[in-house]
Amino acid sequence: MDRLVLLVSTGVARGLVVALFALSLVIIWRAARIVNFAQAAMAVVAVYVAFAVQQATGSYVLALLAALVTGALLGVAVERGLMRHVAGRTPLPGMIVAIGLVMVLQSTLGILVGPQHRPMTPVLSQSPLYVGTVPVLSRYDLFVLVVALVVVVGLGLLFNRTTLGLQLRASAVAPEVSRLLGVRVPRMVTVGWMLSCAVAALAVLLLVPTELGLNAHSGDVLFVHAFTVAVLGGLDSPAGALVGGLVVGVLVSLVTGYASAGLAPLAVLALLTVVLLVRPGGIFATREARTA
Amino acid sequence: MTPTRIRTIVLRALLLTVLALAATFALDPFRNYQLAVVAATFCATAGLTLLVGLTGQLSVGHAVLMAAGGYGYALASAPAADAGLGGPARFALGMLGALVLSGAVGGLLGLAGARLRGPYLAGLTLALVIALPALATQVPGLGKDQGLSVPFEGVPAPLAGLMVVEQWHAWIAVLVAAVVVTPLVVLRSGRPGLRMRAVHGDEVAARLAGVSPARVKVGAFLVSSVAAGLGGAVLAVVTQNVGPGRYSLAFSLLLLVAVVVGGLGSIGGAAAGAALVVLLPWLVDTAVSGLPADVAQRLSGNLAVAVFGALLVAVTLAWPGGLAAATAGPRGRLARRLTRGPAPALPPPSDTRPDPQPITER
Questions:
Q1: What angle do CA B303, B258, B31 make, to 5 degrees?
Q2: What tens digit of pLDDT does each residue of B195-249 get?
Q3: Rounded Cα distance, B354 and B124, in Å
Q4: Comparing C-alpha atoms, which of A167, A188, A226, A200 is closest to residue A84?
Q5: What is the CA radius of gyration of chain B?
C-alpha cells in the first residue's frame, strides 16, 4: 500500500511534466495545425543553454529564465525561418521539415558536446518526504508539481481571460475572419510558437534532474509520451492534455514499479494503439472536418 | 494498364537486373557488400516512397517493418537449418517467414493507419520504433539485445569457382530487389496507383468516385510493409544477424530521407536515395578517420545525420520534387535549366494559397 502511494504520487509529478510538454504540442497544433516533431530537440537545445548558465552563474533561477527565453527565441527562429515557408495544404511537408530539423539539432549537439550524459543536480533534495510513515513525494517532485500547476493555470488564464488569448484562439480557428477584424494572424502564429517552445523547454528542464542526465536525446522519450498524451486527449484539447498526462505518468510509474522499466514503453505503445483504434481523433477532440 | 506497358516495365526491370548482376563482377568484395545493403534498403525505400508519395501516409516506423522481416526470416530459417534443409528451400522458407511476419505487422499498422490522419499515424509509428528495443528484450524468442543469428548462405556449388560469398550475397540482394520492386512499379503506374493518388488528393471526392479510401490505404500500407520486410530479410542474410540495434529511430529517419531526397513517389528516386543513405555515412566516416580520435568519434555518426537533416529540410522547402524531378528528362527543371537557360517565371502553384476553412461541427 505504501508502495502504491509512492508510485502514484511520483507518477502524478512526472505526469504533470509530460502534460506540460503535451500542452506545448497542443498550443502549436492549435496555432498552426502542425505537430512539431522537433519540439523535444529544440527544448533540449534550450536546456543546454540553461545548463551553461547554471554552470557559469550558479543560479537556478537564472537557468530557468535562460531556458524559457532560449526556448521562445528558438520558436520564433524556427517559425519565421522554416515553417512559414512550407507550402501546401497537407500537413506532410511541415512534418518532414520538422523531422529534418530534429536530425540537424541532435547531431549538431552530438558534435558540439559529445555523447556523454551530463548530470544535472536538482535544486531540492530527491529523497521522499513522509506523511506519517508513508513515503510520498520528494521536495523536488513537489517543486515540479507546483511549477507545472502554475504554468497550466497561467496558460489557461492567458488563453481564456486576455485579449491576446482571444486573438490567439481566433486566428487559430478562423484566420481569414480574424484578419478582416484586424488581428495580425501571422504574428499570432509566431506568438503561439514562442509560448509553446518556452513551455517545452521548461518541461525538459524540470524532467532532466530526475533522469540519467542531459544528453542530445534526453527529450526523445518525453516527446513520445507527450505525443501519446496529446493523442489521448486529442491534439485540440488543453484539458485533454492535462488529464492524459496524469494517466500516462501514473501508468508508466506503476508499470515501472510493479513490473519492470523495460515494459514501460510497451505499456505506452499499447495505450496509444488502443485509444487510436477506439477513438482515432482522441478522447476529448471535436471533429476536425466532416468526411462524408 | 495494357499488357504492353506491363511488358515494357518487366523488360526494363530485367535489363537493369542483368546490368546490376554483371556489375558485381567489376566490384571488390567490400563494394559488393555495400551493393547488397543498398539493394536491401532499396526494397524498403521503394515501398515507402509509394506509401508517402502516393497515399500521403507518413510512416517513420519502416525500420520496424524491416526488423519484422529480418526476424521472420530468422525464425523460419533457423528451424529449417536444424532440420538439415539447405540452399534454395531454406532461403524460400525464410523469405516466406519474412513475408508473413512483416505482412502481419504491416497489416495491423495499416488498419490503424487507415483511420488516422497525418500526424496521428506518424506518432503511432514513432512510438513503435522507440518501443522496438523493449519489444526485442521482453518478447521471448527474439534473442534480447543481441538479436538472432541467421544461417549462413554460402555460394552454391555450380557458381563456387566464379565468385566469392560477398558477390553471391549481392546477387541475392539484387534479385530479391528486382522481384520486390517490379510489382511496385506496375502497381504505381496502373489503376491502384491512380486510386492511391485520388485518395491522397481528396478523400471525399475519391469516395464519390467509388474508391474506398480505407481499403486503398490499408492495401498501400500492406504492400509497402511487405516490401520493407523482404528488404529486412535480405539485410539479415547479408549480415547474418537480426537485432534491434540496427533498426533504430535514426535508421528509420534515414529511410524517410532517402525517399524525400529521391523525390516522393518516384521509384528511381528511391533507388538513388537508398544508395545515398548507405554510402554517404560511409564516405563521411572515411573522410573523418584521418582526424584526431576524439574529434573523429564525435563527427563519425553525427556529421552524416546533420547533412541528411539539412538535405531533408532544403529539399522539402526548395525543391519538393527531389532528385527525380531534377533528372526527369526534358521536363526536369535541372535539365531545362541546362539546355535552355533559366526557366521562365511561372505563376505560383495553386497549392500555396491559404487553406479554405474545414467545416467544423459544433
A1: 75
A2: 998 888 888 888 898 888 889 999 999 999 999 999 999 999 999 888 888 888 8
A3: 28
A4: A188
A5: 21
Does residue A173 sit within a domain? Answer: yes
Contacts of B358 in chain A (CB under 8 A): 288-289
In a domain, A23, yes or no: yes
Has residue A171 been placed in a domain? yes
CB B92 within 8 A of CB B80: no
Question: Helix crossing, A2-32 with A39-57: angle to 10°?
Answer: 110
Q: Which domain CATH number covers A18?
A: 1.10.3470
* Shortest distance, CA A116 to any CA of chain B (angstroms): 11
Q: Are A207 and A43 in contact (CB under 8 A)?
A: no
Overall number of domains in chain A: 1
The closest CB to that of A292, out of B134, B204, B310, belongs to B204
Contacts of A285 (CB under 8 A, 6+ apart): A233, A234, A235, A236, A237, A240, A279
Q: Which of residues 64-123 of A touch B (CB under 8 A)?
A: 82, 85-93, 95-97, 99-108, 110-111, 114-115
State the average pLDDT over residues B331-335. Answer: 51
- The answer, for B355 touching chain A at a CB cutoff of 8 Å, is yes
Out of B120, B207, B305, whose CB is closest to A280?
Answer: B120
